[in-house]
């Protein structure tokens, strides 16, 4: 329409439907297209690409003053790249799937005529073939080369891939891309020496691993390793407070599962516990929905013998810890420490003014529990009595629901001071830090003060052991031996008739069989016999009218 609906005008309507459009024609690798765009015009070009190919395309305004705009679409019509500029728009993309790609070119404002040149350069990937689970491929990457591997996985399979520069010169930056069967990229990562990733396969089919140098301007020697499913991952269950030790073989990934709820906190460390040279432990956490939480340490992996996961969980369900070596190429002996809070108590209980002492191994984490009341202001400290240079005390305080309340790290004494807002079991976690990761060994002393044991009803019996924590009952009398004392138990003798009903019936609320005929008061009421008459029992068929029980219950 004409915007004011009050004038006549000649018009041209341009329409492009990807992937069926190619009004500009077919592009050939290395041969430019020189043409012009009318005001508002869009031209579409198509070309064939193999998965893993590098696509370089530029759209240049050859005369001015237009602003080039270019879009790239994959075979399934997904827009995978776009660029605009005042003179030259450029796209640099790695194809995640094979097929016919489409380039749309236009003037960015659609309001100017533009003379242009469209260039395309495709760099085919070198196909290295299939990579099997537990296999490592060692090769040399040339300048501007992309090496392509493939593997098959089923939806829900766990996948672990590592790419590292074998010379450890840190002069190159390995780049790892992994494309799903539908061509979408699920991994696109780079590093100064090692790229290591774990994930849950979202689809069933053939996945592509693309190995390159980040800038595509340097070559380097590399090795890439794949661990997949049950072939490369062994499943173990993990209990709270566990310490697991054993060997980790080169190329192996060990899988440990545990159940947790949203809001729990997890502290886990993987330590090189032997004498392996060059081993770099790798620990990752896979959530119930399949996303991966990597370790938060920013230490270079080749410099650390301890790797950790320290996080608050956001989902409820079964989690998986994946333990491996960063490059998947070195065997080592390991120790895995695991604490889930609340619940962790591998160190035992701690009370006021009675320090707990011991020794922390490299990367070890020890959890202690204590009882405290809302309103308490507690003080806790973790110290290194020997002032060991390798030990830097790190202390954390958690609430009964697992919330992290306070933490401190210091070269000699770590201390936390906190006013508490809830009753119940609190947790102190003692460890050592080296830099910003768990590490360091030494003797320690942990002390606590200011905690009062909760006693809500003031009867002198702590809530933790009180059988009626909100009703005063210092005698703790519990006739039927269940979890509730008489003071808060509606049925003291557990005969199925409440104390109120027994008072109305005249039966003894502390004796389950008032008339001693071998049938409980509740059984006699159920069978309409008299719980006060030993000669009236369910076997004799005479007894108490049911209306009497109902009347008693209403009083």
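^ structure tokens above, recovered residues below v
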């Amino acid at each position: 329409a004409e915007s004011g609906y009050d004038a006549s005008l000649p018009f041209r309507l341009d329409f492009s439907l990807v992937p069926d459009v190619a009004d500009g024609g077919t592009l050939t690798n290395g041969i430019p297209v020189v043409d012009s765009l009318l005001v508002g015009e869009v031209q579409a070009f198509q070309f064939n690409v193999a998965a893993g190919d590098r696509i370089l395309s530029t759209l240049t305004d050859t005369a001015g003053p237009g602003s080039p705009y270019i879009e790239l679409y994959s075979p399934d019509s997904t827009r995978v790249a776009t660029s605009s500029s005042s003179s030259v728009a450029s796209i640099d993309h790695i194809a995640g799937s094979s097929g016919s790609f489409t380039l749309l070119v236009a003037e960015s404002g659609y309001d100017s005529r533009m003379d242009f040149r469209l260039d395309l350069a495709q760099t085919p990937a070198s196909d290295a073939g299939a990579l099997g689970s537990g296999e490592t491929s060692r090769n040399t990457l040339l300048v501007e080369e992309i090496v392509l591997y493939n593997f098959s996985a089923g939806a829900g399979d766990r996948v672990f891939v590592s790419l590292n520069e074998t010379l450890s010169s840190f002069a190159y930056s390995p780049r790892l891309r992994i494309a799903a069967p539908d061509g979408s990229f699920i991994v696109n990562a780079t590093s100064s020496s090692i790229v290591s990733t774990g994930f849950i396969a979202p689809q069933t089919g053939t996945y592509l691993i693309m190995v390159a140098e980040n800038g595509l301007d340097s070559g380097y020697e590399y090795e890439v390793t794949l661990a997949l499913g049950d072939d490369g991952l062994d499943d173990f269950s993990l209990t709270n407070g566990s310490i697991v030790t054993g060997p980790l073989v080169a190329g192996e990934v060990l899988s440990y599962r545990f159940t947790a709820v949203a809001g729990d906190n997890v502290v886990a460390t993987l330590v090189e516990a032997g004498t392996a040279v060059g081993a770099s432990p790798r620990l990752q956490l896979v959530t119930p929905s399949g996303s991966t939480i990597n370790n938060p340490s920013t230490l270079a992996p080749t410099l650390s013998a301890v790797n950790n996961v320290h996080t608050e969980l956001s989902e409820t369900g079964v989690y998986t810890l994946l333990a491996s070596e960063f490059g998947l190429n070195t065997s080592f002996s390991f120790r895995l420490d695991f604490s889930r809070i609340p619940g962790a108590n591998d160190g035992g209980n701690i009370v006021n003014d009675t320090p707990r002492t011991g020794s922390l191994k490299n990367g070890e984490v020890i959890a202690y529990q204590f009882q405290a009341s809302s309103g308490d202001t507690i003080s806790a400290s973790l110290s290194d009595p020997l002032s060991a240079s390798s030990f830097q005390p790190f202390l954390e305080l958690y609430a009964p629901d697992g919330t992290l309340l306070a933490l401190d790290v210091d070269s000699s004494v770590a201390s936390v001071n906190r006013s508490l807002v809830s009753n119940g079991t609190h947790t102190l976690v003692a460890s050592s830090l080296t830099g910003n990761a768990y590490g360091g060994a030494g003797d320690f002393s942990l002390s606590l003060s200011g905690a009062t044991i909760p006693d809500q009803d003031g009867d002198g019996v702590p809530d933790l052991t009180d059988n009626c924590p909100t009703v005063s009952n210092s005698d703790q009398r519990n006739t039927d031996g269940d979890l509730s004392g008489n003071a808060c138990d509606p049925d003291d003798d557990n005969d199925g008739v409440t104390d109120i009903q027994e008072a109305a019936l005249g039966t003894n609320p502390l004796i389950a069989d008032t008339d001693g005929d071998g049938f409980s008061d509740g059984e006699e009421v159920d069978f309409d016999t008299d719980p006060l008459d030993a000669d009236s029992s369910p076997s004799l068929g005479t007894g108490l009218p049911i209306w009497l029980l109902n009347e008693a219950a209403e009083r």
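Helices lie at 229-232, 499-505, 521-526, 546-554.
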